[in-house]
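Case study 2.
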Amino acid sequence: MLKIFTGEDRVRATQAIHAYLGDDYEVVEGADITTGDLPSIFRGASLLTPTRSILIRDLSINKPVFEKLPDYLDTPHRVALLELKLDKRSATYKALSAKVEIQDFALPKDPNANLIFNIFKTAKRDGKKSVAMLEEIKFTQDPLMFFGLLVSQAIRDYSARQGITEKKILKALSQLDLQLKSTATDPWLLIEAFLLRLSQIK
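Prediction:
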């Protein structure tokens, strides 16, 4: 069974994914998948269990692979797609929406949204300045929602350019996502450390 979870509120989307997949599941980065990987992901068996639980993140930015998704709706596995935004006008979306449950988790309008995007853009040039900008607003922000907006900007950049740097930034955000969920460290410290090293990602 396949379900799609979309929207910028990755906190609520992730909670819904946990409710669907449980606590033990595989994570696959959509940007790294080729069409040749699809049979093993959606139909490949595990030695330990007949069915697998799989989370695929941001597959829609990988358009040639995403367009093949309707061919794998017969998967015997429990699969969740986590997407920032889907093009509702596309033939792929229409084919999926007719057969697959799609849950949308929109963020409430944030008056600081433009500033958050400016922080991300600044960090790509000057990490220290971006952290100083963050200091001005972070006490009015939820760190996980702020992280979700960083991800949304990175995905937009990748969709526009699909360069090596943009792909590396997405991978670095994926690592930050795991850190935010698995450590007791102050999430703002982890986010600031990411911003400081962002300009070095080439």
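The mean pLDDT is 88.
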